[in-house]
Amino acid sequence: MPTLLIWHGYKFRFYALDVGEPPHVHIVKDGKSLKVWLKSLEVAQNKGYTDQEIGRLLTVASEHRDEWDDFFGL
């Protein structure tokens, strides 16, 4: 599972074989995970993150989303 970004210990990753879904990243840290659709920046799935953490992580994803355009074809 390639890592796109590590920010304050949060790993922004993607699964190369995740097909049939919109472009998204998985954000993992300390046994928690968050799945975020990149085009809309909506949470697809949350396991353990607080609303405050999610807000920060969505901001970071938004700031870096343009860097991931080539891979995801956004």
Summary?
This protein has two helices and five strands; from the N terminus they run βββββαα.
Explain this structure to me?
The protein has about 70 residues and is an alpha+beta fold. The chain has one domain (about 5-70). Helices cover about 25% and strands about 35% of the residues. The chain has a five-stranded antiparallel β-sheet with strand order 1-2-3-4-5, with helices on one face. Strand 3 and strand 4 form a beta hairpin. The radius of gyration is 11 Å and the shape is globular.
Keyword list:
2 helices, 5-stranded antiparallel beta sheet, 36% strand, 74 residues, 5 strands, alpha+beta, globular
Distinct helical segment count: 2
Percent of sequence in beta strands: 35-45%
The strand line-up of the biggest sheet is 1-2-3-4-5
- What is the chain-wise order of helices and strands? EEEEEHH
- Largest β sheet strand count, sense and barrel closure: 5 strands, antiparallel
Terminus-to-terminus distance: 20 Å
Number of spatially distinct domains: 1
Count every beta strand, where a strand is a DSSP E run of 2 or more residues.
5
Shape: globular
Give the low-pLDDT segments: none
pLDDT averaged over residues = 90
What is the percent of helical residues? 10-25%
**Helix vs. strand class:** alpha+beta
Evaluate the radius of gyration: 11 Å
List the helices and strands and how they pair.
Blueprint: E1 3-7, E2 10-13, E3 24-29, E4 32-37, E5 42-47, H1 51-64, H2 69-72
Antiparallel strand pairs: 1-2, 2-3, 3-4, 4-5
